[in-house]
Amino acid sequence: MRGLACIAVGGIVWAGLLSLAAAQDMPLSQVLIDGQGWELVADGFEFTEGPAANAEGQLYFTDVRAGKIYRLNASTGQPEVFVEQSDRTNGLMFGPGGKLFGCCGGKQQIVSIDSAGKFTPIATDAPCNDLAVTRAGGVYYTDPLNQKVWYVNPQGKKRVVDTGIARPNGVILWPDEGTLVVADTLGSHLWTFRVEADGSLKYKQPYYSLRMVPGQNGSGADGMTVDSDGRLYVSTHAGLQVLDPTGRMSGVILKPQDKFLSNVTFAGPDFSTLYVTCSDKLYRRSTKVQGVRPGGAEKAAREK
Q1: Sign, Cα dihedral of 265, 183, 132, 9
Q2: What are residue 54's phi and psi, to 5 degrees?
C-alpha cells in the first residue's frame, strides 16, 4: 500500500523509482562514507538556519537571531557576510533563474534577494518560517503560529492551502514537484500532499513516521532536503532522519553536537556534500549520493 499511495501522490514520473524502493531497502550505507563524520565548517553564530545552495553549489545560510545572511566563499570555503541586516530572515531557497527567496520574519514578508543582497517583497503580511520554491516561481511557506501552509503564485497572489498541522515548520517538494512535504515540529509524522496544477494541495496524509525521543515534546522536525534517489532528510531531536520514497526509515544520522538541529541541504560542486545548521555552528560531511540542484529537478526525474 505504501508504494501505491506514493505513486498516487507523487505522480507518474516517480513510478519506476517507487517500484525499486518498494522492492529493496535503502540503508544508510548507501549514503554515508565509511570513516567520515561531521566536519565543523564554522562556529560562533547565534542561531544558524536556512541553508540553501545555488546552481553552482555555493552554500548560503542565515543567522536568524543576529539578523545576518552568510555565504561560503567559493575560494576559501569559509563564511562571509552576504546581508548585514536581514530582519530575522529564516528559511532560504533558490528558485528559477538563480533567484534567492527568503522568509523575512521581522517584516513578515516573502522576499527575493538579488546578488547585491537587496530585498524585494514577493508577499506581505506573511508570518513565515520556511519555504519551498517551484520551477515556475511559485512559493509554499509555513506559518507555524497560525497553523497554516500558504501558496504564493508566480504573480504574487497568496492563499492558504492547508490548515490544522500542529506546528508546520520545514517544507520541501519532491524532485518531480508532484508532492509537497510539511514537517510538524510537535507531531510524530511528516505530512504529504499532492500538488495540483494551480498550486492547491490534495490528499493530505501523515506519510513519513519519525523516530521519537522519550521526554521530548514532539519530533522536533524542522528543515528538510531530498536527494536524487528520492530519499528525504529531516532535522529532528533524534538526529538527521533519512526516509526512503515509500516512507520507510533508512536510518538516523547522529547530530554533530548535542544541540538543536534546525536544517539540512546538499551543496558543493557536485551536490554530494551534506550541510546542517546546528544551533551556533555549521557542519558538513561528504556522501555517496547527490542532492538536486536548483533547476535540475526535471533532468533528475527523467533519468530515473
Answers
A1: positive
A2: -80, 180
